[in-house]
Amino acid sequence: MPPATAATATPTLPVPLPVPAAPPRHRELPWEQARTLAQGAPRPSAARTVPLADAVGLTLAEALRTPQPLPAFDTAAMDGYAVAGTGPWRIRGAVRAGTVWEGALGAGECVEISTGAQVPAGTRAVLPVEAALAGADGMVAGPVPPPGRHIRRAGEDAPAGTGLVPAGTRIGPALLGLAASCGHDTLPVRPAPRVRVLVTGDELDHAGPPGPGRVRDALGPALPALVAALGGESRGVRHVRDRPAGSLAAAVHGARDTEVVAVTGSTSAGATDQLRGLLAEAGARMVVDTVACRPGHPMLLAELPSGRWVVGLPGNPYAALVAAHTLLGPLIAGLCGRALDPLPRVPVTGSVRPAPGLTRLVPVTWYGTGVRITAGHGSAFLRGAAAGDALAALPPDWTEGGPAPLLSAG
Hints:
Number of helices: 7
CATH architecture of the largest domain: 3-Layer(aba) Sandwich
Oligomer: single chain
Shape: elongated
Mean pLDDT: 90
Number of strands: 28
Largest sheet: 6 strands, mixed
Structural class: alpha/beta
CATH class of the largest domain: Alpha Beta
Number of domains: 4
Strand content: 25-35%
């Protein structure tokens, strides 16, 4: 074969330059799905038993049951006379709450009785004091009450062994009183998850009016109170600077006395946002990468190999509030063994900028049988949330006057 000539030689093509890889796209989860994932991600904390006085705000680890009937005995529901047979009735004595009248009543007999006192054997009913006419001769007259009138029967409220409140219920004053009335001195509970708040940002001032080019930290004061309202235990706030790089990693990994670390700011992809890189380097399991809602969409939830949870919240105050209700609140509920509370759906009126394909969370105020949108809900502005009664999660297809789920504004 003859050698190639200049006319027949294959031309040398330029070597193409490598094309930079596009940054990974984060999948925006629907708002309701993100809340469900956050609640279901953790295993509930181990249960422990605490005195009633220490149980308020915690979560029942087991159903509350009554070991005895409620009420435990037949008791008078009115002040008056426990009567037997038809009248008039001869007074045999008196019985007060906390005492027992020994013996049994015969026909035509009665005892004076106080509300809550145990009714004697043989009692037909309780004649209210305002319907009775007591004479100087020791007799009482009045209309004959129907059998069982004004008597609370033993077990009428609950037979022995009845489950009164299910596991997973947050413990409030009424539950404490109910437990005491059943005879319980302690309760099995799941403790409140301990939450450390890390507020990032070199631009933040922490006292007084902010200086030129700076802003006052709103989340440092707000988030511990919100953590408590959501059922967690705040372990304080630490302020972390954007520089040097790695300062956030040290703060996150150093929070060993907590189950949850909530980081404000640093969730996006800017030059000073460290959180996503930190989680990738640590080998964290990402549960929620971002959420299809406004404001607050650059939020995240991840689990570190140590088992500690990291919730990434935006740095803007109202956006952070929205993200906390979306991920932090459900995560705390899951750690406590609580289900997500069902959200009431009510009509919402007012004007809001459309957000196609996204859930829009806005503060609302009760107005008649529905709610109306409260002014002042930019991502950095807390006026609407502070003045409103709740947050409405407007679905992507919401129209003026349509229903939307409501959740507490915290």
